[in-house]
Amino acid sequence: MNPATSSPPPPRIVVLGSLNMDLALRVPHAPAAGETLQGRSLDHIPGGKGGNQAVGCARQGADVRIVGCVGDDDHGRALCAALRRDGIDTASVAVDPSTPTGTALVMVDDAGQNRIVVIAGANARVEIDEDILARQLQGADFLVAQFETPIPQVARALQAARRSGCKVLLNPSPARPVDDAWWPLIDTLVVNEVEARMLGGLPADTPQEAAAAGQALRLRGVARVVVTLGSRGAVAVDAAGARHHPAPRVAVVDTTAAGDTFLGALAVALARDGGDFDAAVRLGIRAGALCVTQPGAQPSIPQRDAVLRGPVPPAWTVL
Length: 319
Prior knowledge:
Layout: E1 12-16, E2 20-26, E3 41-47, H1 49-58, E4 63-71, H2 74-85, E5 89-96, E6 102-108, E7 114-119, H3 130-137, E8 142-145, H4 151-164, E9 167-170, E10 188-192, H5 193-200, H6 207-218, E11 224-228, E12 234-238, E13 241-245, H7 258-271, H8 277-291, H9 304-309, E14 317-318
Helix pairs in contact: 1-7, 3-4, 5-6, 7-8
């Protein structure tokens, strides 16, 4: 093959995160206290923020390894098999024989809005060997992490990334405070309105508020911040300022995994083609917009070709 015409290697991404079997329950509306509803359906669907984000990266063309933990049970085996079908390396997924695989009850109403209860299970048993992880991160483009695995283990992973020279993309979800020592270790921070308010102490309900909240977070040492705003798109904040990227209008079926899909597309786009931040955010929005038009977590995450053919966001504005 002629080196001048050969394709560049795919981005390499290591994901530290949770692996859950989602029990997806379709309901006409969220039940009130004491109310009994007739549900529409119940499905078992691979999920967990770590698994979803790994799949989101893989379907955008990245070479992905996931670090996590499952139980020695049918759910754990099914989750790992699903990841492998997407080409994801599961060699670093531990199996704990004493704890069941993580589970999430995902209730989705007819408007496509979800309500989620997570039982950590084996996700609470994730343990990081910093030396091994540092070797795995050498040459990788990003370490992606969230907060559905033990916080001390996330801290160890961030330190391993620093030692190996790998950038960190952190999604601090579920929302909880971030240790001051972490901020300089984070290259890209992705937060929603709730997480931005908790971490920065400022509201982020409008694009203008999200810009101010993102700037406050960036001043703590993060190179780039994205504040996601659901159907209103996202706000990108870096040294050049803040830009609001609207989302295209789509028919919403299920919002489960939309944020994880956005993050996966964002991470891969940042690792490709010089890492144009605004282009990466727009690609993430396109991926998320397609995700919400389909039910379920990982089944709804689109492939790269579909995203490139999908709805184009409206023009963005400087805030």
